[in-house]
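ok trying this again, last paste got cut off
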Amino acid sequence: MAGTKRSKIKKNDQVAIIAGRDKGRRGRVLEVLPGKGKIKVEGAGMIKRHQKANPQANRGGGIVDKESFIDISNVQLIDPQSGKPSRVRYQRESDGSKTRVAASSGHSVEK
């Protein structure tokens, strides 16, 4: 493993899914694994897990629906100005800091 992988998509970003079985769906990013190139989006990539009851954790058993990881190349960040999916690029500020901007409009996606 030489170096660190980075992702232009961060936790709590609003993204649109552009490929796969959930194409067209939008949601909030729950988790990002940049090293594996995977992302977990709220309400997308739903799978069923058979969960054993655990009384100590106050958790009942049964079949549980949960989000699975999908490939990060299958999502695009939503442009804050137009509301459409857009690629992300970095822009250097005069003080040397970097901010993420939507490539289509040039508007910042930072909160």
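PB: full thing came through this time. The mean pLDDT is 93.
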